[in-house]
Amino acid sequence: MPYLFDIILNINVFCGFGGMVMALTIKEVEDIALMARLNLKEEEKEDFAQQLNLILDYSNLLHKLNTDNVEPLTYVLPVYNVFRDDVVSPGSPREEILSNGPLLEDGQYKVPKIM
Amino acid sequence: MELYELGLRDLQDKLNGDEVSVKEIIESIFKRIHAVDDKVKSFITLDEENALKKAAGLSSKENRKGKIAGLPFALKDVFCTRGLRTTCASRMLENFVPIYDATAVSRLNTEQGILIGKLNMDEFAMGSSTELSAFFPTRNPWDLERVPGGSSGGCAAAVAAGEVPVALGSDTGGSIRQPASFCGVVGFKPSYGRVSRWGVVAYTSSMDQAGVIARKVEDCALIMDIIAGHDPLDATSANVEVPDFRAFLNPDIRGMKIAYPTECFQQGVDEEVKNLILAALKKYEELGAVIEEVSLPHSEYALPAYYIIGPAEASTNLACYDGVRFGLRVEADNILDMYCNSRTAGFGDEVKRRIMLGTRVLSSGYYENYYLKAMKVRRLIKNDFDQVFKSFDLVITPTTPTAAFKLGAEIGDPLTLYGNDIFTVPVNMAGLPAISIPCGFSDGLPVGMQIIGRAFDEGKVLKAAYAFEQNTSYHKTKPFLGGEQR
Asked: What ipTM does the predicted assembly reach?
């Protein structure tokens, strides 16, 4: 059953205040999965498209609110740059840090060929 | 009463009076765990051998100098524990053994508390039922067919079942208060920044906060006296004065001004829950508080905003699980496939869903429409509270719209599941302290009342909670799991 989400796309999602927010296509779900470094099976793509659309749809409620003159609130605390004195303190021993590494060689993390 | 049924303060009195030994306390706890945990399934990892060793080291009074010397505690498996597996209930971290303790944990250790074990949760703290643990679901001690709530479901279930008197949990959108409500125990989420997040595996950094689940308000205050305070290792921990929280445990609340928001008594809230909260407000009035109805007009926008901000931050926080430095790794012959294979095998569906959602709302072209919009709405939600707190000391709401639901009932329907957090999420968005305490029963299931305070005014929240507890007996009713004396 290809493109179940087309139905959702048709029902929705025009929001008067916030502009057009389109439902996700399978292609977009594939792109997102790649950006998020996840593999999806074919059937998962449809499931995720549907679920993500549900949530994104729900969040379109936010566009009912006019927020033109509202400052975004990132953190509730008035904390911006937090500096400390540049004092050397002992860190964790290298062997301990490496102890959780899934694959090591000569005291270094080993990864597949990159280039 | 058996030792495992007592709170920290009561155990302390018994220790001080030489009525019991630390060994007897710890043995009673493990005996209880071995008797009921097959049913409740609260614990992922037990640390029995070490706990008994520590108990032996604290056998003489001279060695017990700490504030909770010889007393048992447990941790949601989101807190890093040096040398003890910390899984976050995820396949990704199934074999992860931290090389340091979370700051909150090392503070409890310094005060000579005895760690019993690590508790189950929804994977990476994403969920409201503890069914999303990658290992097994935890069950509600009041009805084993129901969920304990989540994400700190293991904490609440263990405390309710008498497996441990207190546990540390974490709360991003209600993850301490909602399970406390479902399991009939006390769940306290301090102000954002009050307790260090160092060593607490991150989900939504701007809202995550560590806190306490206990059977008594006084035990919450005792633990808060230990874990609260600035930590140079957490740049967002607040550098503000920490009061003596236990000094607020005085039930005289005459003249206190308490508001209840109209929005929390509208449709979708169980009739029984509504009545219990209204009865509780009446109780406060009898105790001398002034009660008034107010409006938090933007509260309906808290959930949709949370389901943008939460996943957005989660998608960046969880980018560190790449199979290189720690966690699960699934090999491939190129790096991209190795990343993808590892993350695909390591994360459960809900975690993937939130990572993908977060990736989407942060991506170019969508950032303004979703993420930025949600942060603006967050400002409006905080403004609502600021307005109310100009003339009131506290705000009271139900903790959740209903009592605990059945296992499997809401799985697979993200929006229904998210609806549980409707009264708790706004509090995290505004960074406020809040507690859930038992305020009655609906069909034999516990119902919780949420008390919200001004930022860094935890004292008043604890005071009001204590006053209610001292004047009611809901917290004395315990679930029956077999073997208890009645």
From this structure: 0.92
